[in-house]
């Protein structure tokens, strides 16, 4: 969330600052520069500007501006927990957080989960097996996020999770997706590479078709809406999205 030095203020950043100044004409040059930094940070794909370490008098002044609020009522800018947002991006981030929290519910594990974990990941050796933890989390929580750098075993863990699911119920509807066509091809190829390492009785039932998110959601011809949404959820028992 921390952007690098912005360098020279771009024309679009300056125009945005001037717009904010029309509503808060008494803002100082320090506040003007902060708002320019925020505008530039958004162009770098950050959702907000981190204000940690900034001069307290400046952040206090920022909080007193009429264009800045706490997100409870509509204002152009929102300041929460030392983060400065455009109101729209604050709403985006808040809605994603609420959705993740709502979906993070426990699931009832199957009776053989301990045996399955040992079968696929081996018995505990006294050190933490994070791949095993990720598999356990995936099978006992409605929402799981698996992270790690290249070569840490994310895809092999996913393949093992799929095999464990198939052992439990071969009729489960499992769908795989990724943000782009290239990412979808990479995930499909990776799963295919791991199939020979999986038990023979589940190998043939592991899904290898990966869709783009747009295809999964059913993008309509207008490009702005989807067939599947809050009122018409995707029909799946288990959904894996790679490279979220």
Written account of the structure:
This protein is an alpha/beta fold. It has two domains: 91 residues, Arc Repressor Mutant, subunit A; 138 residues, Rossmann fold (3-Layer(aba) Sandwich). 45% of the residues lie in helices and 10% in strands. The chain has ten helices and seven strands. The strands form two sheets. The chain has a four-stranded mixed sheet with strand order 1-4-3-2. The longest helix has 17 residues. It starts with 10 loop residues before the first helix and ends with a strand.
Which SSEs are present, and which pair or pack?
Blueprint: H1 11-23, H2 29-43, E1 49-50, H3 56-63, E2 68-69, E3 77-80, E4 83-86, H4 87-103, H5 113-121, H6 130-140, H7 154-168, E5 174-178, H8 181-194, H9 200-203, E6 210-212, H10 213-217, E7 238-241
How is the main sheet built?
4 strands, mixed
Overall domain count: 2
Oligomer: single chain
What proportion of the residues form beta strands (DSSP E)?
Answer: 5-15%
Please tell me the overall pLDDT.
Answer: 90
What's the CATH class label of the largest domain? Alpha Beta
The unreliable regions are 1-6
Q: From the alpha-carbon coordinates, what is the Rg to the nearest angstrom?
A: 23 Å
Q: Number of helical runs?
A: 10
Strand order of the largest sheet: 1-4-3-2
- Helix share bin: 40-55%
Q: Give the overall silhouette.
A: elongated
């Amino acid at each position: 969330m921390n952007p690098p030095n912005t360098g020279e203020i771009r024309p679009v950043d300056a125009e945005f600052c001037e717009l904010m100044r029309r509503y808060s004409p008494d803002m100082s040059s320090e506040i003007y520069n902060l708002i320019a930094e925020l505008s530039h940070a958004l162009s770098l794909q950050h959702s907000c500007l981190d204000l940690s370490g900034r001069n307290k008098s400046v952040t206090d002044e920022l909080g007193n501006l009429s264009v800045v609020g706490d997100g409870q009522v509509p204002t152009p800018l929102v300041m929460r927990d030392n983060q400065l947002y455009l109101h729209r991006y604050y709403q985006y981030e808040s809605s994603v957080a609420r959705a993740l929290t709502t979906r993070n519910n426990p699931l009832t594990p199957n009776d053989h989960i301990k045996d399955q974990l040992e079968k696929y990941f081996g018995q505990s050796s006294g050190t933490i097996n994070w791949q095993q933890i990720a598999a356990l989390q995936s099978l006992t929580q409605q929402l799981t996020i698996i992270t790690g750098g290249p070569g840490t075993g994310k895809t092999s863990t996913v393949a093992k999770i799929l095999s464990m699911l198939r052992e439990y119920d071969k009729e489960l509807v499992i769908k795989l997706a990724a943000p782009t066509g290239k990412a979808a091809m990479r995930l499909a190829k990776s799963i295919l590479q791991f199939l020979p390492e999986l038990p023979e009785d589940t190998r043939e039932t592991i899904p290898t078709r990966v869709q783009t998110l747009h295809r999964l959601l059913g993008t309509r011809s207008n490009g702005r809406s989807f067939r599947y949404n809050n009122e018409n959820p995707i029909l799946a028992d288990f959904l894996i999205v790679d490279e979220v």
